[in-house]
Amino acid sequence: MINEKGQVGIMHPAEALKIARQRGLDLIEIVPNASPPVCKIMDFGKYKYEQTNKDKLQRKHQQVTQVKELRFHPNTDIHDFEFKARHARKFLEEGHKVKATVVFKGREITYTEQGEELLHRLAEKLSDIGKVEQVAKLEGKNMGMIFAPDRSSKKKSEKKQKQPETQGKSDK
Questions:
Q1: pTM for the structure as a whole
Q2: What does residue 40 show for φ and ψ, rounded to 5 degrees?
Q3: Any idea what the CATH number is for the domain that residue 85 is in?
Q4: How confident is the model at residue 87, as a pLDDT?
């Protein structure tokens, strides 16, 4: 049996319950299968309250990453490619993963090398802020590549942004 101040020792359950009631606390069975069972005298309401606060705090600091998808065709024009590459860059900066998919319709499936070249061009464009998590892979009539934000490059860019701010303040 464990008390808030330390171990009390082995005692009969009725006696432990009596001590808990005298103190206005609860007798909580921690390890029921042990011989003898391990119990603790504490305020159960307070314990549950602290536990819910811990859970809320963990959920608050947990970051949910989403996978954003961009769809291309093997004959995607340069302007459309640049437009979608800017979106991919924005998604990676926000901390999301990006799945770039080249969709082949009908006989376009014979031009898989064009789709692969397009994905490699996108990988080059995003290499400074993202890294390739899954290389180009053909799945049916779709070829996909997954990019993840590169945490190390993000830290470097934050350091570069902080340095000019401190330099500007020392000049004044």
A1: 0.56
A2: -140, 140
A3: 3.30.110.10
A4: 93
